[in-house]
Amino acid sequence: MNDSESGNKAQQNGEVVKNTGQFIQHIAYWYSDGSIVVRVDNQTIYKIHLSMLTKLSKVTEEILTIPDNKRSDDPNREGTSLYPLFIPGTNAQEFNDFLFWLYLTEWESLGDDVEKERMCTHLLKLADMWEIAAAKKYAIHALDMVYLSPSRRLELAGKFAIPDWVRPAVRRILDGKLSQLKDDDICAMGWKVYSMLVNAMEMLGEETRRTALVPPGMIKDPSIQCTDHTSCQSIWPKLWFDKIGRDLLHPKTPMKLGGIVAKILQDATLTHPKLSECCRLDMVLHCSRIIFADEDIVTQVPNAIIQFHATLA
């Protein structure tokens, strides 16, 4: 068995691996005044400042605690160049990105969104695993400044308990078409979440058709200024469908239920020679106060997804 195979086996067994020259010092994170030497794989070792890590959280303090039975000047003590302390649960790229945050704190020098997403996601993972509240808050804020697809945000929201991302992501998906989601998007958010979105889209479709074909009820007590309310009542269903229903059912660019009120408030939307001006104004006011069912659906679905995500913790 060669040194590499021996090191791999020892690492898997949680044993201490002696540095016989197989490790490479990290070019950026090897500080001459560093107080502990660590590794996360069988290639690279880091000499960093123990106090900066242990103060971050109870978890980092625990995983970096050196057994008391070893003197600080003992060359066989873990955390030295000869016996680097192994940190499990991560890899070199993730740890590099974490140290970048730890030592620089500001990431303005980062490149494009792809690089920012990678670094922030790695930071988010380790911050969540090691219970570092400050790092998790920073990563979430930084990712808010990066473009992420709705499915990616739902994926990260589920993994790292970020409920604030769920509602905007669901709204963006439901404002579009589920057919626009690719297999990778569905796998990212998970089939359970996708099934909730499918059900929500079906409910929105049913509610949209119902709203298009069944107008809000005409006001029963018309203004005394209306001289022919029977005529107003008879034309109202056709007027509603022509002005609102057709847009809701448009085969290519259907209007969302949430757009009804804005259209109704346009001066010429609900005008018709057989609809008196007083009844028109009454119906504009009445319809503008209606809370259409899409808001309930778009509220219920994120809540259900958040509850589901809570079961994954």
From TrEMBL:
InterPro entries: SKP1/BTB/POZ_sf. This is BTB domain-containing protein. It comes from Favolaschia claudopus.
